[in-house]
Amino acid sequence: MKSKYFLRELKEKDAPFMLEWMHDEDVIHDLQNNFAKKTIEDCLLFIKKAKGNREDLHLAIVDMNDEYMGTTSLKHISDKTAEFAITIREKAMGTGCSRFAMKEIIELAFRELDLVEVYWCVSPKNQRAVRFYEKNEYERIPISEMIVTKAKCMQSYSEKQMDEYIWYHVVR
């Protein structure tokens, strides 16, 4: 069955839609970053920096009309690992968009980037995300078992977050 979604490079035309989800309290209320303070200029700069970035891969999730639905990312690519991230507009929630994008970017990580592990975490307060990962049978893992990953996460997460967050991974 052909998907009604695609991944592509981020484009400047995506910026207003990025800003839409960043200012949507229903989307951002349980996320780590303060997206509500972001501006259209921040979105445009993010898109510009995404081009040719070797440490982070940020792709737009788009529908068949090339309308931006969200962003999926592989961050901190090194040591055969990367951190997965995704966020989508409220309009795309419940449509299969997230499931498609997650599956595609993880396959890309293994097939094209030759990674061996993709990991991510979520605050236990973000019950929508926890339900999504559990429903899709992603494997929880204690961060203590991810030696390389834990060292990388120390750059982005506090000790408290590393202990409290729910960690997941997919291994090739």
TrEMBL record:
Any matching Pfam family: Acetyltransf_3
GO molecular function: acyltransferase activity, transferring groups other than amino-acyl groups
SUPFAM superfamilies: Acyl-CoA N-acyltransferases (Nat)
InterPro entries noted in UniProt: Acyl_CoA_acyltransferase, GNAT_dom
Residue intervals of the N-acetyltransferase domain: 5-164
Keyword Aminoacyl-tRNA synthetase: no
Keywords: Transferase
Keyword Transferase: yes
Name assigned to this protein: GNAT family N-acetyltransferase
Record organism: Selenomonas montiformis
